[in-house]
Amino acid sequence: MAATRSNADPGLFGPDSVTWQAHGDPMMWIAGIRALYLQALHPRAVRGVTQNSDFRRDAWGRLMRTAGFVGTTTYGTTEDAERAGARVRKIHRLLGATDPDTGERYGVDEPALLMWVHCAEIGSYLHVLRRSGYPLTDAHADRYLAEHRHSARLVGLDPATVPADRTALAAYFARTRPELDAGPEAHEVDDFLRDPPVPAPLVPARALLWRRVAHLAYDSLPPYAHELYGRPAPPPDTVTRRLRLTGAALRGIPARLRWQLPPRHILGAMARLGPATRPGPHRLGR
């Protein structure tokens, strides 16, 4: 068990959770982009984004807000996590989207839409981490999915309905597959992720870094997603090798240096709970 300060709140998951260890890994950024690609394949869900936000002009802000929510719910106090969830639920209650074919108006907080967004996100985190070499056993993976019934509750889902192991998650994706399609909004997200607008001084960085990251995230998608988007991926072995090489390179950067980047939730949690709660695979299995 991780030694924590007795008077400190460990938060929603706590230092002994798989979530606490895994979410400190730098491959989470690639996993997050994969989640966006996958989420965009649900026509009703992606309209909630394209019709209610200016993601084209505020890409970095959107990514940072998502990272902030994940960081807060993982490493913040219980009160911080509950407050972040309440904000998300309030925003979702106020937003709706319109089906352009039928004119139907619907809320973005429909349970089916929240479930898709949740499963695509958590499933992407788990997939990329494991495929890139992060040491998660099958038992760890099931624990991770079970833990995220907490995050599902925060966004408005009934935890009892949320897939809590790999078998249930695979069954969910199989059931939902017929509802997916790469409509105009999905291709808009695809075009954006491949070539996001950036200030002129950052154009070289976009070419050297962002496109490689976005391509790797896309390549790691399941075969049905490649089929829907209409762009092939390299052979699976090639993708796995690239994910492992990227994971090894990013994990080679000292954690203390990586954690200095915003939003710095990990450093805040270690300051609150003690240095022994430092996340990483060294604690898995204890």
Automatic annotation (TrEMBL):
Its EC number is 1.-.-.-. Residues 20-251 form the ER-bound oxygenase mpaB/mpaB'/Rubber oxygenase catalytic domain. Keywords: Oxidoreductase. Pfam families: MPAB_Lcp_cat (PF09995). GO terms for molecular function: oxidoreductase activity. It comes from the Bacteria. Coiled coil: none annotated. PANTHER family: BLR2777 PROTEIN, ER-BOUND OXYGENASE MPAB_MPAB'_RUBBER OXYGENASE CATALYTIC DOMAIN-CONTAINING PROTEIN. This is Oxygenase MpaB family protein. It comes from Streptomyces parvulus. The lineage of its organism: Bacteria, Bacillati, Actinomycetota, Actinomycetes, Kitasatosporales.
